[in-house]
């Protein structure tokens, strides 16, 4: 078993519970950790035997283009798409952060993490 991790993927997107958030947009950060058996890829040195992190980025970018109300929904959607593309992975963990969330005070980021 092993992990492939992408950290600090940044996007400007139109998510948020409040309508105004979906109109003005905000900056988001996404981290992804995929756990799977990478032994064949390690032995054969073949991209086709592993999870392609360029594909993980593409999946994430596509999901981030679709407006959502909740960070949880974004993370779940990314996990579903990764599992659709790579059915044999053991687990997918996604963290989604929203910069400067509207909490009524100073907050650098709000962050959720889902693992499925």
From TrEMBL:
<comment type="function">
    <text>Catalyzes the conversion of 7,8-dihydroneopterin to 6-hydroxymethyl-7,8-dihydropterin.</text>
</comment>
<dbReference type="InterPro" id="IPR006156">
    <property type="entry name" value="Dihydroneopterin_aldolase"/>
</dbReference>
<protein>
    <recommendedName>
        <fullName>7,8-dihydroneopterin aldolase</fullName>
        <ecNumber>4.1.2.25</ecNumber>
    </recommendedName>
</protein>
<dbReference type="Pfam" id="PF02152">
    <property type="entry name" value="FolB"/>
</dbReference>
<dbReference type="GO" id="GO:0046656">
    <property type="term" value="P:folic acid biosynthetic process"/>
</dbReference>
<dbReference type="InterPro" id="IPR043133">
    <property type="entry name" value="GTP-CH-I_C/QueF"/>
</dbReference>
<comment type="similarity">
    <text>Belongs to the DHNA family.</text>
</comment>
<dbReference type="GO" id="GO:0046654">
    <property type="term" value="P:tetrahydrofolate biosynthetic process"/>
</dbReference>
<dbReference type="InterPro" id="IPR006157">
    <property type="entry name" value="FolB_dom"/>
</dbReference>
<dbReference type="GO" id="GO:0005737">
    <property type="term" value="C:cytoplasm"/>
</dbReference>
<keyword id="KW-0289">Folate biosynthesis</keyword>
<comment type="pathway">
    <text>Cofactor biosynthesis; tetrahydrofolate biosynthesis; 2-amino-4-hydroxy-6-hydroxymethyl-7,8-dihydropteridine diphosphate from 7,8-dihydroneopterin triphosphate: step 3/4.</text>
</comment>
<feature type="domain" description="Dihydroneopterin aldolase/epimerase">
    <location>
        <begin position="4"/>
        <end position="116"/>
    </location>
</feature>
<keyword id="KW-0456">Lyase</keyword>
<dbReference type="GO" id="GO:0004150">
    <property type="term" value="F:dihydroneopterin aldolase activity"/>
</dbReference>
